[in-house]
Task: inverse folding
């Protein structure tokens, strides 16, 4: 399965979450793309190439995990594209202290809330969602 993870690249505190998701699901044989790869891609590619890569990754995704704890214009655009295309295999995740947009909840449902102490529980819930 191809899993695409969206999320802010400006908040380094989220990098641990992205890495944990990638490591966990890659070990299970899934292909996982995260914002960490986006950061590396942006170092050597322009904005048009970044857009084309993001749209390609979205088109190839079987499942999307969207970390919505912080603002990200690019992520909002990606989620809008997914919604417009009728793609509903999206799970929202957010840290326990963050506000969740009512528009996103309306589009994709209630997010899974987590904190640093419940990251293992988050992974279990994500595994259950992917199996649905």
Result:
């Amino acid at each position: 399965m191809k899993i695409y993870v969206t999320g802010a690249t400006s908040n380094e505190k989220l990098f641990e979450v992205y890495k944990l998701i990638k490591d966990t699901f890659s070990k299970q044989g899934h292909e996982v793309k995260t914002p960490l790869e986006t950061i590396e891609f942006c170092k050597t590619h322009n904005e048009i190439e970044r857009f084309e890569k993001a749209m390609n990754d979205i088109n190839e995704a079987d499942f999307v995990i969207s970390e919505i704890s912080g603002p990200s214009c690019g992520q909002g655009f990606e989620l809008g594209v997914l919604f417009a295309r009728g793609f509903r295999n999206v799970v929202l995740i957010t840290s326990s202290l963050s506000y969740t947009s009512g528009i996103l909840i309306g589009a994709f449902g209630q997010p899974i809330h987590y904190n640093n102490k419940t990251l293992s529980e988050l992974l279990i819930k994500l595994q259950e969602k992917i199996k649905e």
